[in-house]
Specification:
6-stranded antiparallel β-barrel, 8 helices, Pdz3 Domain, about 450 residues, alpha+beta, 3 domains, 7-stranded antiparallel sheet, Thrombin, subunit H
Length: about 450
């Protein structure tokens, strides 16, 4: 009895400290209301959404998801734990990891004498299957909601081309899989330990499944947050390899176990393509460091190794080309998304997106100039002329559309003096001409 009592007395301070850490974390979790502009169906429109976030510094830096707060946001408001609402601005976002950083309006916080707590990162590298964790956020707008679960898998791999408004994500990191309930509105909130340490940022759930959710590990979030605060963006290198898991192909390629990464394909016109690499080759080493891409979970680390090199770096790749093994060198380019900048020309009833270098290579276009038609508005000149989603506008009134600014200038001229506008497009690799009439 005495020994049991002593154990209880000895454990009380630790339990109290744990409770304080958990409560401080709860006070650092915020609701995020975002109003943003969208470009679709030939016009621009405004929409509103709700997400979650966590304050991680004493000066009010908030970490959330990129799909919660994007550069298209025109108004961001953050509701603190005391239910006071304060404005915020976007510091930077990174769709590749689905992370964004906001800054609370310091002047407003000072003027209104608002207080808030901030949380701390934990060590996500030491998580194990079965460990108890908690997801905190504002599901469906229900502020400061906590759900409990376990780590189902600390290194889950998947890439997603639609999860962040059509932008790519998941190429450079694995995810924490948990069965803690994560619902719409939880996005951007923290996944925490029993001590209140942030070991992940909740990002998404698997539709149609029961409590099958994913979070960005704290190790990734900490690094990306630091880069966004410092530079406003994350710059990565690209060489054009599309990787694949080697799995059971070692015997076919006469490789030792756990050796190499399959090159599924190579982007047309990329540094890797210019070096003579092609789909079916095996990448064995990068600058003399052996790579092991047998399983899908190992691919993000290899991709991140390439992406983390300074843009313009020269890399020596050791590659197995059929029966031959040789070294080749590539010079990295800056990584770009396939998704370009959107815009709407409302007098024409036309919404567009810039052609990116990546999109041009994927679709075997001659150049990255031009604008992709996202939509046309019925009854407006673009719809009447016959423009359609997917068309690529290459010239306006005979002027090459080398940038979105060129099209904006021509549209402004049309607004000031409406006259027929000749539009040259590519549709199914064929040139077509249309007239936009006032």
């Amino acid at each position: 009895m005495l020994s049991a009592l002593l154990c209880l007395v000895a454990s009380a301070p630790a339990g109290a400290a744990m409770k304080r850490g958990f409560n401080q974390l709860l006070d650092a979790v915020v609701r995020i209301d975002v109003r943003e502009v969208e470009f679709d169906s030939g016009t621009k429109r405004f929409s509103a959404s709700i997400g979650s976030g966590v304050i991680l510094t004493a000066d009010g830096l908030v970490l959330t998801n990129a799909h919660v707060a994007s550069p298209n946001a025109v108004e961001i408001n953050v509701t603190l734990a005391n239910l006071e609402r304060v404005g915020a601005r976007l510091i930077g976002w990174d769709h590749w990891t689905d992370l964004a950083v906001l800054q609370l309006d310091a002047a407003e916080v000072s003027r209104r004498k608002l207080d808030f707590a901030h949380a701390d990162f934990g060590d996500s590298s030491r998580l194990y299957p079965g460990q108890t964790v908690y997801a905190v956020g504002t599901p469906h707008g229900l502020t400061r909601t906590v759900t409990r679960g376990i780590i189902s898998n600390p290194r889950r791999y998947f890439e997603d081309a639609q999860g962040v408004r059509g932008y790519e994500t998941g190429s450079f990191n694995t995810w924490l899989q948990t069965d803690a309930a994560v619902n719409p509105g939880n996005s951007g909130g923290p996944l925490i330990t029993e001590e209140g340490a942030v070991i992940g940022i909740n990002s998404r759930s698997y539709l149609g499944a029961d409590n099958l959710s994913f979070a960005i590990p704290a190790a990734v979030a900490r690094q990306i947050m630091a880069g966004l605060v410092r530079d406003g963006r994350i710059t990565r290198s690209y060489i054009g390899l599309v990787p694949g898991a080697l799995l059971d192909l070692e015997n076919f390629y006469a490789l030792k176990l756990n050796t190499g990464m399959l090159i599924n394909s190579v982007d047309t016109g990329s540094p890797a393509a210019r070096a003579g690499l092609r789909g079916g080759d095996i990448l064995l080493a990068i600058d003399g460091h052996k790579v092991d891409g047998r399983f899908p979970e190992q691919l993000p680390a290899i991709q991140n190794l390439i992406a983390s090199q300074p843009v313009g770096s020269t890399l020596r790749l050791t590659v197995k080309l059929g029966a031959e093994t040789r070294d080749c060198t590539v010079t990295t380019e800056q990584l770009e998304s396939r998704v370009g900048e959107p815009w709407a020309f409302e007098k024409w009833g036309l919404s567009v997106r810039s052609v990116s270098r990546t999109y041009a290579r994927e679709n075997q276009l001659d150049s990255a100039d031009g604008l992709i038609v996202l939509g046309v508005q019925p009854g407006f000149p673009s719809a009447i002329a016959g423009l359609a989603r997917g068309d690529i506008i290459t010239k306006l009134n005979g002027r090459p559309v080398i940038s979105l600014e060129v099209a904006k200038q021509i549209h402004t001229e049309y607004e000031n003096k409406p006259e027929p506008t000749l539009v040259e497009t590519i549709r199914n690799h064929r040139v077509s001409l249309y007239i936009l009439k006032p």
